[in-house]
Amino acid sequence: MKIVEVRAQEVRLPAQAVEALAAHVPVAVTRYGRRQHVVLSEEQFRLVAPLLELLEEGVAVSPELLMTKEDIGLERDLDRDREPSEAENAQIETLLAEADA
Amino acid sequence: MQAAPADLRRGRIFYALFPFAAEFPLTIEDEAGQKLVFPTIEDYARARKGRATRVVTDVRLRPVLLLHDGTRGEHEDVVCLRINTVKPRHRRSTTTWEQIEQQRHLFFYYLSASQRRYGLQEDSLIALTSIGSIQKSAILGLHVGELTHRELQSVSERLSRILSLDLAPLIAERASELLRRAGYAI
Fold first, then answer.
1. Half-sphere exposure (CA, 13 Å, Cβ side) for B174?
2. Domain ranges of chain A
3. Cα(first)–Cα(last) distance of chain B, in Å?
4. CB neighbour list of residue A34: distance below 8 Å, 6 or more residues apart
5. For the segment B130-166, what is each residue's pLDDT rounded down to a tens digit?
6. A60 pLDDT exceeds 80?
7. Domains and CATH numbers, chain B
8. Cβ A58 vs Cβ A44: under 8 Å
9. Which ranges constitute the DSSP H helices of A1-101?
10. Contacts of B62 in chain A (CB under 8 A)
11. Are B136 and B77 in contact (CB under 8 A)?
12. Given this model, what pLDDT does residue B186 score?
């Protein structure tokens, strides 16, 4: 995998980002509120590098590996969502009224 | 009123009875109408083998997105994706939600209530792993909304990745056909 390396003197990170990286917490760089880059500690990068290589080579990777815990949690919540919203019930009433008309 | 076959087109949104997946412990009703509970799949398999079973499970009338036309009367079922109304707790994960709202998330497709063509009163979400099959008789009334061709393409692209569909032979065949039509022999 091609990696561009720059010297530490050439990069200026705020103290909180440096502290976060030391604690192996990823740092996201945003622009107008949207994530542009994510900086990882060397240890963390070593963990994800094999997956990045596979993706770069176009090798089929199990899509589940691309899900975060939060993604899986949301998916499970949606699967078990049993309560209709008021708007859903109102729309069902409308459909029934149209059927009766 | 049941949905009219001519109305059942790919990309349209309907209200339909969508089942919750059966899970264990499983409650069933045997041939004599007696309720039985099976703690695990192995317990169930020992008792029932491959026989059809009446399962006591839940269904919910909710919006679904049709994935193929159901206009042929001979076909009783249509394949669809479940649509969930977004609730405040679903937005708790800011990282995931940021990607969802920007339509950059592989596993979720966002349907904003501000887009009137969806016909949904509230912001909604399609979990692209929630593919299901529903009987046409379980669809209520006419479609309430629909996705554009471009939006459906986006759904299809994500589905092909999630399901790891190998589309290479199909693409190669299509490319060969286009080249042949253009007069380039292969």
1. 5
2. 1-60, 67-101
3. 53
4. B98, B102
5. 999 999 999 998 999 999 999 999 999 999 989 888 8
6. no
7. 5-18+62-181 (2.30.30.110), 21-57 (no CATH)
8. no
9. 15-22, 42-57, 69-79, 86-100
10. 84, 88
11. yes
12. 63
Contact B93, B29 (CB under 8 A): no
Cis omega (within 30 of 0) for bond into B63: no
Least confident segment among A40-44, A88-92, B70-74, B116-120: B70-74
CA nearest to A64, candidates A53, A56, A75, A80: A75
Q: Are B109 and B155 a contacting pair, CB within 8 Å? A: yes
Report the candidate in B55, B73, B62 with the shortest Cα–Cα distance to residue B8. Answer: B73
d(CA A45, CA A49): 6
Question: Residue A16: what residue type?
Answer: Q
> Which residues of B are less than 8 Å from A78 in CB distance?
82, 84, 90, 125, 127, 130
Q: Which amino acid is at B93?
A: S
Find, in chain A, the residue whose alpha carbon is nearest to that of B95. A70
CB B20 to CB A80 under 8 A? yes
For B17, residues 6+ apart whose C-beta sits below 8 A from its C-beta are: B59, B60, B61, B134, B138, B139
Residues 13-42 in A contacting B (C-alpha not used; CB under 8 Å): 34-35
ipTM value, please give it. Answer: 0.83
Cβ atoms of B123 and B111 within 8 Å: the answer is yes
Q: What is the pLDDT along chain B (186 residues), one digit of tens a residue?
A: 677 888 899 999 999 999 998 889 998 888 888 889 999 999 999 999 998 888 878 899 999 999 998 888 888 899 999 999 999 999 987 788 988 999 999 999 999 999 999 999 999 999 999 999 999 999 998 999 999 999 999 999 999 989 888 888 888 899 999 998 888 866
